[in-house]
Input
Amino acid sequence: MRLWSTKISLLLLSIIIISGCASAPTKTIEEQYGIRVQSLRLTANGNLLDLRYKVIEPEKAYDFFKRENRPYLVEQSTGLRAKVPNMPKIGPLRQSAIKPETDRVYFILFANPGKLIKRGDRLTLYIGDSKIEDLVVE
Output
């Protein structure tokens, strides 16, 4: 009987240790990148995707403002890419700032040729070394 209770105790201890390891804390988007995604919506009759995000910590959000970083979205189920249009007279349809401001909302517009990305689709944002998954089109 004593051997049986020792085995059960060891089994329970193992389960507790394993579950503790499995639930390692993951950083939120705010903690990792210093931004809060406000929305991802279709605009311009579905021809553009409008990403709005608020800067929480400017020091962490610099990837979102570097001109050399070319943001793009990937539709998770099809792999379809949406890029930022670069207009001849006005340049890329995104805001870039030398010094991002805390609590200010910024935007990036992405092309949606053929209106292939629809409401409810899940997308991943890539910009510089940053990757934000599971953005849902509203």
